[in-house]
Amino acid sequence: MFENLVENIQGYKKPLAFGIARVDLGQLNHDKTLQATYPVINWNESFGTAAVFIRSLFENGVEVDFNSSEFVAAVTKEFVETALNYFGDELVNEAQGDKHKNIQVLKVLKEIFDDDLIAIVGEETSKIPQKYVLENLQLSDCINGVPNSAVSIRVDGRLKTEAGIGKGVIDAVFKTIDRITNYHGTLVDYNVQAVTQGKDALAKVVVKVVFDQKKPAVIGHGLSIDTMLASAKAYINALNNYIHMKDLLQKKISYKDSI
Question: Distance (Å, rounded) from C-alpha 24 to C-alpha 30?
Fold first, then answer.
């Protein structure tokens, strides 16, 4: 349907496989990929979608190397908007359930990019320093038992592990994170939805947390096949965003005082 978009691209080859992934990078070595999570993997299929992705990359100044066995490019707000525009309103509106899963991923990304709080003071989330990085999560929620969690977080490169209990599993996870980080957040909003369908559906969790009653709530996002893991990632993401915002405000205050 969209193959004509790449007819004039020199050297174009149909991809064997492609997809959009969330990539977790190393805390100390940002060039090291810890894991990549693909909500949708297209294996020798969906070449029309591939054409839209490639054309969208080209229109945003990214040249695809068709001679390489693998090509990776950053997903930007401009790329997402260009791709959705090519798909058109009809297909975008149809993209739910089992229909047009690649477009569903783009729609979720658009929501993230459009969120004012996820891009604190105009900076992309990918540029925000990750002071806290989730390394491991273990949960227990037995019948008639007390929900508890064990969380391991890398703090400025050092691994810290704590266990805690709560009124529910999510409450136990968040309280344990608070214990490790010495920050105490108040959850004011929690939303979870499936990005894709099926038993391996990717869960998107969005939290809104207040870490300082004198400052506005901060939003955090988390993606994972496991909802509890996505929730922990979202809470830590909100904390990293809050710390970054606080540091920036402090720098601005210090700069004004020095004038």
Answer: 9
